[in-house]
Specification:
By secondary structure, the protein is an alpha+beta fold. It has a single domain, classed as Ubiquitin-like (UB roll) (Roll), CATH 3.10.20. 19% of the residues lie in helices and 35% in strands. The two termini are 20 Å apart.
């Protein structure tokens, strides 16, 4: 996976380590409520401390993916859902 944003040249904001492109599993929280676990999310991960960063478009897509789960609140089991790119 290769991003074309220049993040590969930026250091981690937490520890100054090197970032690499990876796909991660991301728990999505709405306040104190875990609403979904999203799989295969494109991310930049620090090789040193493991912290991960998302591109703005990925953050928007995550919000779109979980919006219905947020509305359901804690009435349903926590869903596991794949990351999928938004149509243009």
């Amino acid at each position: 996976m290769r991003h074309k944003t220049g993040m590969e040249n930026k250091p981690c904001r937490r520890c100054r380590g090197t970032l690499e492109a990876r796909r991660v599993e991301h728990p999505y929280w709405n306040g104190a409520t875990l609403v979904a676990v999203v799989h295969d999310v494109p991310s930049w991960v620090c090789r040193l401390c493991g912290y991960h960063y998302f591109e703005p478009a990925v953050e928007t897509t995550l919000r779109y993916i979980v919006q219905d789960y947020i509305k359901m609140g804690t009435l349903f089991p926590i869903p596991n859902t794949p990351y999928r790119k938004m149509p243009n």
